[in-house]
Protein: Protein FLX-like 3
Organism: Quercus rubra
Amino acid sequence: MAGRNRGPREAFNDRRGYPPEGPFIRGPPMPRPPPHPALLEEELEMQHTEIRRLLGDNRRLVEDRMALHRELGATKEELHRMNLIIADIRAEQEMRSRELREKTMKLEADLRATEPLKNEAVQLRTEVQKLNSLRQELSGKVQSLTQDLSKLQADNQHIPHLRVEIDGLHQEVMHTRAALDYEKKANIELMEQRQTMEKNLVSMAREVEKLRAELANADSRPWGAGGPYGMKFSSSDSVFPNPYGDGYGAHLVAGDKGPLYGPGPAAWGGPEKPRMTRR
């Protein structure tokens, strides 16, 4: 019950109540974190929809082009048929006009011969006028057909521009695919770098744990000669004299200038590992 709502004491022993700091690492700056996968998926979905829209537009353009080709073929056939019909009509008109001329000549001869045939000549003249009006109507139809043909030719001139636009759309699709492949490769490289960094962090954490264990072992060793307060035997400032005198022909006063036993701090327990400076 007394230890409830209390943290472990080891977490604040090293820095007298302050939380421990991590090791200071020198090196290149950390790379910027990669964008969130949801954003990448949203951008890929937008690009996929754009590609599908472009493919639909391309398909519609191809269908319109095929329909224009079919209409152009049908118009050419209709125009050829109309030309044949017009040629037949012209031949027929020429034949009829020739016949009418011959008839008029005969009628004039007959009129000279007979006066009662004048009424028939008048009727024939009215028929000639009707044929002339019919010829004018046919000529107007031919002009309208020529205008339609010119419009179709103008529409055919737009087909190369449509082809150029289709080629541009194909190139944009290729560029989009190349960009998607590049982003996929970049994402794979970022994942590999992240995995290597995580491995490095794990290894560094293990090294930090080892160093902490070594520091704990070094702190748990006994103090050197002179006690924990570092008193010096047989020195001019020492209150307690050396009870053993100057044995072995050595003065313990030399402790002021160097270690008491041996050349360094490793005289008791073998080589001691150097302590790391605490921040």
Notes: Residues 1-19, 223-279 have pLDDT under 50 and may be disordered.
